Amino acid sequence: xxxxxxxxxLCPALFFTTVTSQRDNVCLRPNLADTIEMAxxxxxxxxxxxxxxxxxxxxxxxxxxxxxxxxVSGEWTKxxxxxxxxxCPYPDPLSNGELxxxxxxxxxxxxxxxxxxxxxxxxxxxxxxxxGTWSTLVPECTxxxxxxxxxxxxxxxxxxxxxxxxxxxxxxxxxxxxxxxxALIGNPRAECTASGTWTKTPECKVVTCRPPHNIARGxxxxxxQRDFDFMETVKYGCTxxxxxxxxxxxxxxxxxxxxxxxxxxxxxxxxxNRGRILYKGRRIWIKDFEPNKVLHKxxxxxxxxxxxxxxxxxxxxxxxxxxxxxPECFKEPSYADYNFHSSSLPSEITQC
Length: 352
Hints:
The structure is a single chain. The strands form twelve sheets. The protein has a five-stranded antiparallel beta sheet, with no helix packed on it. Strands 2-4-6 form a three-stranded antiparallel beta sheet, with no helix packed on it. The chain has a three-stranded antiparallel beta sheet with strand order 8-9-11, with no helix packed on it. The chain has helices at residues 2-25, 335-340, and strands at residues 27-28, 36-38, 44-45, 50-55, 59-62, 67-69, 82-85, 97-100, 109-114, 118-121, 125-127, 140-143, 145-147, 155-159, 167-169, 173-178, 182-185, 189-191, 203-206, 208-209, 218-220, 228-229, 233-238, 243-245, 249-251, 263-265, 276-279, 282-285, 299-306, 311-320, 323-324. The chain starts with a helix and ends in a 12-residue tail after the last helix. The protein is mainly β. The protein is elongated and about 135 Å long. 9% of the residues lie in helices and 35% in strands.
């Protein structure tokens, strides 16, 4: 009886020792990356148990081995098994828009936006899915539309590009014109804007100009003392040797004023008494230059001497409305040199 009691009292100790020994040899559930899946849900694994490793959706296995084994020491065998995110193809460009993304791996996002004047048709975002494809197709950026441009009374518009139907698109442009004698008041350019409306429409109004005045030393093509309609013209000319500077024709403008009138510019006299000049490619003694007259903006040259090199050279000067400046280097020869020793003058010696 005592022997049985002793065995009974020893049994719990033996049982506890056996369980503890077995627990020391088992493997705990391995601590793996969140992207790795493994079979089984238990917490403890006996030696010899194999665990197959795989990747969660959206990830691709790299390296190996793809299984681990619980060893008798309670440790799992080593593995370099990794799961890398799947990659979607690079997105196509968005015509008339922009796309923004940092990467093309699983769960990456693309954001689409359109340029000014364009509207996004489709999804503005797309996500890289577990199967390596984007969640949505590339959207389109379609231009904002406008109606046909409004036409002012007594006017018309000429589009810069062909317009078909009753719809125009953002960026379409044109030019307004008025039927004569109406003048266009406002901006002649028209454009379909990003808001779907056209720029402000100008007006076509009757515009007249008062009778123009004559110009000094000139004449007009008409002497009518009446109001002139928009775009009517009057021509001017100059008398004698005066030269017209500016446009020969003035126009009645849309603001009721004439365009800028021309003016008549006076000829010049070459103010030297002795010497030779170069005019229109000809070398002429001043006494033979008849009449002594150079027209406005014409060029004539006088001769100067380079004393150091003992050579002559022509210096041009231009007639500006009756004034011809003789270059300072010109030295008028004496009467004797001019008449008896002309071969020594700057115009006659070797030219520099």
